[in-house]
Amino acid sequence: MEQRGRGDVPPRPAAHRRRRADPAPVRDDAQIRRRGLRALLPGVPVRDLGRQVGPRIPRRGAVRDRGRGVSPALPASLVLVGAGKMGGAMLDGWLAAGLEPARVTVIDPGLPPEAAEAWAARGVRLDPAGAGEPDAVVLAVKPQGLDAAAGAVAPLAGPGTLVVSVLAGKTIADLKGRLPRARAVVRAMPNLPASIGRGATGAVASPEVSADQRRTADALLSANGLVEWVVDEGLIDAVTAVSGSGPAYVFLLAETLAEAGVAAGLPPETAARLARQTVAGAGELLGRSAAEAAELRRNVTSPGGTTAAALGVLMAGDGLAPLMREAVAAAQRRARELAG
Ligand SMILES: NC(=O)c1ccc[n+]([C@@H]2O[C@H](COP(=O)([O-])OP(=O)(O)OC[C@H]3O[C@@H](n4cnc5c(N)ncnc54)[C@H](OP(=O)(O)O)[C@@H]3O)[C@@H](O)[C@H]2O)c1
């Protein structure tokens, strides 16, 4: 298959209009790539898109946002209950956001010794004795582990403690039922990209959550990406159906695009690599651009061209939109059933 080298990126159409007296510009590869993208996506800021090369997933413990100021809203004392995939990723995000490790106590009896050692080496406390009644308790055990965890958490969560839960399907009433002294509860639904600081979290606060506590919850949740607050707890099922389950829909898109590529004659490995990078690259472009998804789509769709032909199928009356509505509604129904 023909591969285009960096030098094959077409020049910006307006380049010939440069005044003759201008000094010859010195351009690096990234600048050349950015120019090609500007030609493709007029009016869309494409800052540093030329640096989108290679894997961007930070290693655990990497500082994700150097230079980001420490949020004054981060709590003075925090207990994290459950430091598995989601709890561990959140803790990583808080430390990267500047939360002092000594302010955090982790309660997780199942923590593998190497993980416990690694957190302790970073200055995180692992002994709940002396944790007192912290400013915030974050619950990140499996939903079915809530009852078992509640025994240890209930004495810590007092009337002045902010409780933040990411437990799928556990309502604010469920949480208050297990933590009888707690008043201020935030129920949040993060998603998998939170593990690389690119999450999308929906959150709802109980009426007792003060303005300061809400800022604290926002600072804790936004250390791992975007946070959207909803006012009605019932909407958390919709959040679950859109962003909670959403990464799986995008992974399916990559799978089915690869399958379609094979059907079109590409070798399976080539189709898989092209589909994967297309989904990852388009997602990155969408994430870095100020433009709406529809505008980006229109910018790459020439009338009568190949993309328009494909979109004619995907955007037909029985195309992707009704299917996506049905899929999201099914996830929302299931979230309601699971929450009881
Ligand atoms: N992962 C995601 O993408 C995602 C997305 C949205 C929401 N969530 C929510 O996040 C929560 C955690 O999910 P996860 O994927 O991070 O699960 P996980 O990797 O299994 O982490 C849960 C951790 O809690 C520990 N734990 C169990 N019982 C405990 C107790 N009584 N006290 C303290 N710690 C205890 C577990 O230890 P053991 O392994 O020894 O049991 C484990 O380390 C779930 O409620 C889930 O609904 C996760």
From TrEMBL:
Q: Where is this region: Disordered?
A: 1-30
Q: In which pathway does it act?
A: Amino-acid biosynthesis; L-proline biosynthesis; L-proline from L-glutamate 5-semialdehyde: step 1/1
Where is composition skewed (Basic and acidic residues) in this entry? 21-30
Cellular component terms, GO, for this chain's entry?
Answer: cytoplasm
An example of a GO molecular function for this protein is: pyrroline-5-carboxylate reductase activity
Q: Can you give the residue ranges of the Pyrroline-5-carboxylate reductase catalytic N-terminal domain?
A: 79-169
Question: SUPFAM superfamilies recorded for this chain?
Answer: 6-phosphogluconate dehydrogenase C-terminal domain-like, NAD(P)-binding Rossmann-fold domains
Q: What is its EC number?
A: 1.5.1.2
Cellular localization per UniProt: Cytoplasm
Q: What is the first-listed, main subcellular location in coarse terms?
A: cytoplasm
InterPro entries per record = 6-PGluconate_DH-like_C_sf, NAD(P)-bd_dom_sf, P5C_Rdtase_cat_N, P5CR_dimer, Pyrroline-COOH_reductase
Q: Keywords, A to Z?
A: Amino-acid biosynthesis, Cytoplasm, NADP, Oxidoreductase, Proline biosynthesis
Q: What catalytic activity is recorded?
A: L-proline + NAD(+) = (S)-1-pyrroline-5-carboxylate + NADH + 2 H(+); L-proline + NADP(+) = (S)-1-pyrroline-5-carboxylate + NADPH + 2 H(+)
Enzyme type, top EC level: oxidoreductase
Superkingdom to which the source organism belongs:
Bacteria
List this protein's GO terms for biological process: L-proline biosynthetic process
Q: Where in this chain does the record put each Pyrroline-5-carboxylate reductase dimerisation domain?
A: 233-338
- Protein's job: Catalyzes the reduction of 1-pyrroline-5-carboxylate (PCA) to L-proline.
Q: Which family does it belong to?
A: Belongs to the pyrroline-5-carboxylate reductase family.
Q: What is this protein called?
A: Pyrroline-5-carboxylate reductase
Q: Which organism is it from?
A: Methylobacterium oryzihabitans
**Originating gene:** proC
